[in-house]
Amino acid sequence: MNPLVLVLNVKANAFLKSAFDFRAQSVLKNVSSLLVFGGVALGVFFLARGVTGYLIQQAHIGQFLYHRFLSMLLYVFFVTVNLGNMIVCYATLYRSEEVGFLMGLPISHEKIFIIKFVDNFFYSSGTLTLLGLSWLLGYGSFYYMPWYFYFLTMFAVLLPFMLIAGLAAVTVLMVLIRIASRIGVRWLLALIVGVYLSAIYLYFRVTNPVQLVEQVMEHYPDVNQYFGYLDAPLVRYLPNHWVAEFLYWSVHGDQARAFFPFFMLIITLAALMVVAGFMARRYYYKSWVSAGDARAMRGGRTPLLRLRVMEFGRKGLLRPSMDVLVKRDFWLFFREPSQWLHLLLMLLLLLIFLVSLGSMTLKLAQPLLQAVSFLVVFLFNGFLIASVSLRFVFPAVSLEGPSFWAVRSSPVSLKRLYWYKFGSALLLILLLGEVLATASIALLRNNPALVFLSGVCTAFIALALTSINMGAGTYFATFREKNPIRIASSQGASLTFLVAMVYLSLVVGMLILPLHAYFENLILHGTTPEGWMTLPVAGVGILSVMLFLVSTVLGLRSISRDY
Amino acid sequence: MIELRNVVKKFGSFTAVDHISLSIPKGQFFGFLGPNGAGKTTTIKMMTGLYEPTAGSCLIDGHDIQQEPIAAKRSFGYVPDLPYLYDKLSGREFLYFVGGLFGIPAETLRQKIEECIDIFELQGFIDKRGEEYSQGMRQRIVLSSALLHEPKVLIIDEPLIGLDPRSARLVKDTLKQRTRDGMTVFMSTHLLEIVEELCDRIAIIKDGRLIHEEEQTASRTFDGQLETIFLELTK
Fold first, then answer.
1. How far apart are CA A170 and CA A90, in angstroms?
2. Measured between beta carbons, which residues in chain A are less than 8 angstroms from residue B74?
3. What is the pLDDT of residues A105-163, one digit of tens each?
4. What would the DSSP string read from start to end of A245-300?
5. Are A78 and A202 in the same domain?
């Protein structure tokens, strides 16, 4: 058998064995995953259908503008898949022990590259694929599209679109690793962050959504035709534009015009496959060796970060057993580029979000719209806290890793270890959440009551999300995986994130009616109802404390399991 | 000093360790032998608190590892079969880390680390990061970490794998000296010649059950016969 088919077959079998494992615990885990993933897929389906219906039938933004918005969303989706693949690929293509094993076998470098790329692509893009499919079904059902539209769009448009993002990521990564051997990893990482932020900024600067809305709405509803001349020339050559164009012409029933963007996608994918194959043949082995050399030579480098107070051997303020745990976690975090770099990137995105809010003005006359606009920002804050928690709190126990034996066999209580990890994570998440909540709400509205409401609810959200991620992260702990990004994108992590989303939806559900009543009184009568905040805050508090208790019991029980 | 009372460990329907009882006095060098998959590492993991026994109890220095884990863990040092270190910490940092977990005062710890550097000849790599170490370097660092707090009991799983002859000699001499000083050593290994050279007493485990126990004294040595005994009993 062809070695490529053989290895992929082994991997597929391993996946199927784990998916169809009929032991009680595995069945329970798989059924609950199915329920939560199914629930979210259903949620995305109705959301896509609802949003499409609202924008087209009630907001009357027109097909052209709607599909340009889709194009922008697809651009963000493209960058997410691309960046996700690039970060995870470094671990799977260059640091995985399996590559070392395969390199010792008579298999061509190109085939090893394909094996690892396929492995990586399905691992890092699985949840995004599910979300894409659910969205497509919701979108298509609004337009009453025929069955083959979904099939064609999923497998011949969205999948190639994601493959283009993934292949572009690994091809660039191979080149970057070669460059890194000359300029060093740190400068390279800084370069990548710079390029990606510039790309996002330039895209939105070129597409200019605000100007686009103004120009389109100027002619609408008199002209609902193709406003192609409004597209910037550069944008027409991007894959997200082709997907949006394909959808635009498909819903208009113009198959002939839908063919061109479809053709462009397939041709680009084919060209990228050829380029990636060529690059893999020429550079994959060389870049793999370079990455290994870079790791081996790291010992001679000057440390990036020196902090005497965190040095081992210096007396700390805490008791010795706690002091060394803090120092260990500090150094393991700041010596692992995938940790600090990801945090830096997330903080930069938060900053961009806050700056963008600062330039918005909300002059909405309707109380419901005021309540909704407040909750959208509030929910987005919650989403950001959930993302940061998932990325950094969920893997906290798993990152004890294969070296956990050192702590497990030492006279340190595992419950104390859990509380230490929980406490330090809560402190950081709370700090981040409160800064975000206060700044985002204060930037939009000069209203102390709303800033207070946001601040209190965010404190509860930080407590609940930290405990959910800590508890579930301990329950799903996998000590063999060293890569925090892979831990944070595992099945258990996805399940945890979805639970967090359900929790945030419940919080928003508790706040919407009291907020509506508040804005109604404020706008129509200039007064505020007395004690309007008590009930919703109590509701959010009770729900959050209950989640904290359940998650903490789960976490404390799980941390003592056999290692 | 070490007492195993009817210890059982089951993984689902599979019994990895089946009613093992052992009593090892202070200062004894105990060799725990058995073929692959016999239950040696599982037994050690129960003794060190990494696994919870399905039944029975493990006592170290009189403390039940499940009931009084902190007191029991203060009494022993542990060297696992796969000596993983933190990739991003240097050997010195790792030693400070483990010493801190055991609550050793800073100045005492610094002296102990310097002693370990001398004894196990760690000078050449102690300040490099774990990710750069060979198996033998890891083994020497981990053995040092297990001895930092002067444990009454040392539990070691395959201590000589990956060590070059000079390092192996260093380790053997250190362990022998420590048992003379009163430390109890519980060692699991496949290297029968090492057992003959070092151990006062051996036990052989097969399919989770203890099938043989024997002592070696000055008047009654294995005299190169251990391999024959082992092969006969485990066939």
1. 8
2. 411
3. 778 888 888 888 888 887 777 777 888 889 899 999 999 999 899 988 988 899 999 99
4. HHHHHHHTT-HHHHHHHHHHHHHHHHHHHHHHHHHIIIIIHHHHHHHHHHHHGGGG
5. yes
Same domain, A222 and A258: yes
Average pLDDT (A220-238) is 59
Query: Which residues does residue B129 pair with via DSSP β-bridges, in sequence order?
Result: B90
Total-model pTM: 0.73
Reduced to 3 DSSP states, what percent helix, strand and coil does chain A have, rounded to the nearest 5? 85, 0, 15
| pLDDT at residue B52 greater than cutoff 70 | yes
3-state secondary structure A166-198: HHHHHHHHHHHHHHHHHHCHHHHHHHHHHHHHH
Query: Nearest to residue A50, comparing CAs of A112, A128, A135, A133?
Result: A135
Q: How confident is the model at residue A222 (pLDDT cuts 50, 70, 90)?
A: very low
- Is the ipTM of this structure higher than 0.85? no
What's the rounded Cα separation, in Å, for the pair B127 and B136?
A: 16
pLDDT(A195) > 80: no
Residue listed under structure tokens 């060979």? B134
Interface of A with B in 312-331 (CB under 8 A): 312-315, 319-321, 323-325, 327-328, 331
Domain boundaries, chain B: 2-234
CB A163 within 8 A of CB A269: yes
Interface membership of B218 toward A (CB under 8 Å) = no
CATH number of B2-234: 3.40.50.300
